[in-house]
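At this stage, I wrote out one protein's amino acid sequence and its backbone structure tokens, and that material follows here:
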Amino acid sequence: MFDCLGSERVAFMMFAELGADDDLAECMAEAIGDDLQNIFEIATLSDGEPETEAEMDAVFAVMDAGLECGLV
């Protein structure tokens, strides 16, 4: 999916599906960018609580994007 659509398009669709308007979904997609595929891979291996440095980096990447886009 990432190879066909690209990370930003996948992120845009994901945030739009979660209820973000187009501007917010686009901002979040641009802010997360290529980190999205890594975030997905880490999330599938995680038990829900970030324990490793990679898991914490993924959480911080999403939080930083939310701050940048005015989500939080």
